[in-house]
Write a structure and sequence with these properties.
The chain is α+β, with helices and mostly antiparallel strands and 177 residues long. It contains six helices and five strands, in the order H-H-H-H-H-E-H-E-E-E-E. The protein has one domain. Strands 1, 2, 3, 4 and 5 form a five-stranded antiparallel beta sheet that branches. It starts with a helix and ends in a 7-residue tail after the last strand. It holds the Pfam family DUF7261.
Length: 177
């Protein structure tokens, strides 16, 4: 063999040896059937629960103004919570087969904070007083009770762990000015 042939053979050996760690690294990063696709991690089941809650709150709060005067706003809050009850119960167990459980409770502290930040006081406001009652913010509008927001704590339990979310869902009649 010539000197040039030996040099080519040594260079090829060096390159082959350098590729061995790359081969092992690629095997470690390769496909494993227990690993979920990345898209599955982006699908947070809490988001699904919040969508259902948002629709339920909007639907249930729509009829409150026509049924309840401001003088009985506590009855309006009770009616709203009673109307939401069956939906919350169904939602909490709706994905048990998928290994997902929701624990949903009202959050009075979050609604009080929302009320303080979003319900103006003083002579320049267009509507009447607001109240935060049992996780529901309601407002006096021309003597009728309007639901502005409802606060929830949603704990989502899956095989990967638990996610806790606090949310205040605004109704379609949100303008509180």
């Amino acid at each position: 063999m010539t000197r040039r042939g030996q040099l080519v053979l040594v260079a090829a050996t060096v390159v082959a040896v350098a590729l061995v760690p790359i081969l092992f690294a690629s095997l470690q990063l390769g496909y494993h059937d227990d690993v979920r696709a990345t898209a599955d991690y982006d699908d947070d089941p809490s988001v699904d629960a919040l969508r259902v809650l948002e629709r339920a709150v909007a639907t249930e709060s729509a009829s409150i103004p026509s049924q309840y005067a401001w003088a009985v706003n506590d009855s309006a809050v009770t009616a709203l919570r009673t109307g939401l009850g069956p939906r919350l119960d169904r939602l909490q167990t709706s994905r048990i087969e998928d290994g997902i459980h929701y624990n949903i409770t009202y959050n009075g502290t979050a609604t009080q904070q929302w009320k303080d930040a979003n319900c103006p006081s003083g002579p320049d406001r267009q509507f009447g007083d607001c109240t935060a009652d049992r996780g529901v913010v309601a407002q006096d509008r021309v003597g009728r009770t309007h639901v502005l927001a409802v606060g929830f704590d949603v704990a989502t339990t899956t095989e990967r762990g638990e996610t806790d979310v606090t949310v205040v869902l605004e109704t379609s009649g949100r303008s509180s000015r």
